[in-house]
Each structure stands twice: as structure tokens, then as C-alpha cells.
From TrEMBL:
<dbReference type="Pfam" id="PF14065">
    <property type="entry name" value="Pvc16_N"/>
</dbReference>
<protein>
    <recommendedName>
        <fullName>Pvc16 N-terminal domain-containing protein</fullName>
    </recommendedName>
</protein>
<feature type="domain" description="Pvc16 N-terminal">
    <location>
        <begin position="6"/>
        <end position="186"/>
    </location>
</feature>
<dbReference type="InterPro" id="IPR025351">
    <property type="entry name" value="Pvc16_N"/>
</dbReference>
Length: 197
């Protein structure tokens, strides 16, 4: 669900920036490649880059029930993992002014659309990973770290700072739905009860 979510956001933002006259410039890529000197770094020139920063477990939903009743039998599963994603949108455009415009348009887009569902979002269903994606809902919120955290983020990604913004995606569920055990339910109690007094 991590890839699918970021791919949907990439497609949506790319369409918005294209409609705004900036062209199809959004890529989903590891920002650390920018200063790596590799051939892939050239693919990031003149682009707006969406890059995953972190995955965080939503601990408040950890204790949900893990058993279900199906045809009078109890089935037990491992609990689903509920996660939040932190991703960064960085503008590596040819001119600094275009980078600032791209970040402004990014802010505009996510201010106008925070909730993404299968009903309100058009995405490329021909992508093999997206074909099994039936229903989804997630919320995108602006996340503003302090200067020290920004320094660590950019230091981790090579040191060169670009105009950028960070968003938090809530709430994705990862669930393999692999049954761990099953058992019959107790439906009747037989026998006589005796008064122990």
C-alpha cells in the first residue's frame, strides 16, 4: 500500500502541475540519488521529486480485535498494521523561481484536496500494482518540522537543500489476512447446574 499511495499522489500532483502550465514534471524517486553522481541523478534534473521519508506505526490502533466469526467458526489473524507515511516533495527545477512556483502549486493542490478515496480519485489502473487496489481512503496533511530536523533530513539526502515541503499521509492499513488459527464456537451448554449453598 506504500507504493500505491505514493504513486496515486504522484499522478494527481503531476496532472495538477501540468494543468497549471508547468508540464509533466513529477517523479517518484529516492531523493538521495540527486547528489549520487549516478546516471539516475540526471533523470531528476528539472523535476519535482516525491520521496518517502519515513513510515510510522499508528500505535493507537494496535489493540483492535483479531478474531472473526465465519460460519459459526472463530478465525484468528495477526492484527493489521496501521501506518502513517511521511513524504517530501522537492523541486529541482532549472530555475529557482520555477522551483518556488512548483512548491507553491503543490501547497495549493494539497490544500484543495486532503482526502483521497477510490471514489474521488482517478488513477492509472493499468499499472499492475494498482489492479488489486479496490478501495482506499487516506488523508494528506502538511507537516512542518523544526530547522534542526530539516537539517538532518537534508544531511541524510546528500546535503544540498532544495525548495521542499513535507506531508503526512494518514492512515494506511497493511493486512495480509493470513489466518493463524481456527476453532469451533461454543454454541450450547449442557448439564445441570447445582446450587453450592
Amino acid at each position: 500500500m506504500v507504493y500505491e499511495t505514493l504513486q496515486i499522489l504522484k499522478e494527481q500532483l503531476d496532472n495538477y502541475l501540468d494543468d497549471a502550465g508547468l508540464g509533466k514534471i513529477v517523479v517518484l524517486e529516492n531523493l538521495a540519488l540527486l547528489d549520487s553522481g549516478s546516471d539516475k541523478a540526471k533523470n531528476l534534473e528539472g523535476k519535482v521529486i516525491i520521496s518517502l521519508l519515513s513510515v510510522q506505526e499508528e500505535s493507537t490502533l494496535k489493540n483492535l480485535p483479531t478474531s472473526h466469526v465465519v460460519n459459526n467458526k472463530a478465525e484468528y489473524y495477526n492484527p493489521a498494521v496501521n501506518i502513517n507515511l511521511f513524504f517530501m516533495v522537492s523541486a529541482n527545477c532549472d530555475m529557482y523561481s520555477n522551483s518556488l512556483i512548483s512548491i507553491t502549486k503543490t501547497l495549493e493542490y494539497f490544500q484543495g484536496k486532503k482526502v483521497f478515496t477510490a471514489q474521488n480519485t482517478a488513477y492509472n489502473r493499468s499499472n499492475v500494482s494498482m489492479q488489486e487496489l479496490d478501495d482506499f481512503k487516506f488523508v494528506v496533511d502538511l507537516y512542518t518540522p523544526g530547522f534542526e530536523v530539516w537539517n538532518h533530513i537534508w544531511g541524510t539526502h546528500g546535503g544540498r537543500q532544495l525548495p521542499s515541503v513535507i506531508y503526512k499521509v494518514q492512515l494506511l492499513q497493511v493486512d495480509r489476512r493470513k489466518k493463524q488459527a481456527g476453532t469451533e464456537l461454543i454454541t450450547k451448554i449442557k448439564g445441570n447446574l447445582k446450587d453450592i449453598n
